[in-house]
Task: structure prediction
Amino acid sequence: MNVTHYLGFDPGGLLAGTGVALFSIRDRAPCCITDCVESVDDAIKWSIDKLAGEAPNAAGLDTFLFWETGKGGWRGADLWLRKQYPVVKSSVLASNSAHGSMSIQGMSLAMRIRARWPQVDLIETHPKVLWYALTMQKHDWPSDMAEWLLNEMDCLTAEIASDHCWDAALSAWAAFKGHTKCWRRDLRELSYSPIEPAGRCAFWWPE
Result:
C-alpha cells in the first residue's frame, strides 16, 4: 500500500487555538481531516494520534521557519511577497513585528515536529497571501474558500469548520505541492545566510 502524509499547522493565540490538519494520499485516494487544539503539545498529540504509527512526509507551518538578522528582521522572502502582491502586503510582516503565537509557538512546534520525526520536510507557508496568489481574491472566510481547497485536494467529502482549520489544511496541501515538486520556487533561497533553529526548511511557492 502506497501512502503519504502531509501535516499542516496554523499556530494561534490563547483564544483562537492552533489549527491542525492531516492531508493523506493512500493508494491515490486523498483524505483530509482538520481540527483546532489548544497548544503546541496538543498539536503534536493530535498528529501522533491521526498518523497512527506512520510518519509524515512533510509538514507545512504558517510561521517563520527561518530568520534573518538585518533591520527589523525582514527576510528576502517577505520583501518579495510584499512587492509581488501589493494588494495583500499588509499580511506580510517583519519577524520583529509578529505575535508570539505565530513566531514563538510556531517555531516551537517546528522544533517538536523535527524532534519527533527527524526526516520530515519542514515547509513554511503563508495561507492568506498564498490564497491571493492562487485566486486573486483576498482572504474572506468563509465565502467559497473551503469548497475551493477541498476541490483542489480532491477531498469533497471532508469538512473545514473554521478559518484556522482552513489555514492548516492549506498549509498541509502546500507542503504536499512543495514536497512533490509541483511547486519549484523556494523563497528561502532569497535569504542570505538564514538562521534555521529547527533545521533545514523550505518555503515553496507556485510559479
In short: Residues 100-116 form the longest helix (17 residues). The CA atoms of residues 142 and 163 lie 7 Å apart.
